[in-house]
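=== RUN LOG ===
request id: a7f3
mode: sequence -> structure
chains: 1
length: 192
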Amino acid sequence: MAHLLSVQIGPARRVKIGERSILTAYGKQAVSDALPVLPLGLLGDEQADLSVHGGLEKAVYAYPSEHYPHWQAARREAGLAGIDDQLPGGSLGENLTLQGLLESEVWAGDVLRFPGCELRVTLPREPCYKFNAAMGFGGASRLMARTGFCGFYLAVQTPGLLRRGEPFEVIAGRRSVSIAALFAAKLAKHLR
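=== RESULT ===
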């Protein structure tokens, strides 16, 4: 059964990327207590660029934990991490680190039913230059585009509470387009 490994939130803050100062919400921190889920996302969480993140359709970002070893290996290959270095949950900017549900197994319109709330799958996440900075190497966005390890956004269908460690079930929606297919169509331009 699929379950929620960890829940992360964080404020938007200014960081330096090269010579630029940018606003980012990367660096989310794990929460151990039950956290309210409201129509616009998790209580206490912020998004830096509301033109591409947040809102009703992108209220919560989920990412499969199964991809973490890939990113740790990519960082090692880039000379950024030692053999024993681990990326904590939230390192990819996600609010929810999931186990047991990949992009290839979820469709737009599916509902993740947790004990205290329901979240509807909407869209794949698209990488940007901020993802490169968060991972620490310039090819991270391109690597996400090539692998399809993008995670997905969720709309809050039924507000309530989320708690790390909770199981959840996937309630099938109309199943007209998968997250993997949406991501491939949107990111085809990065693979040319």
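=== NOTES ===
The first strand starts at residue 3 and ends at 9.
The chain has a mean pLDDT of 90.
=== END ===
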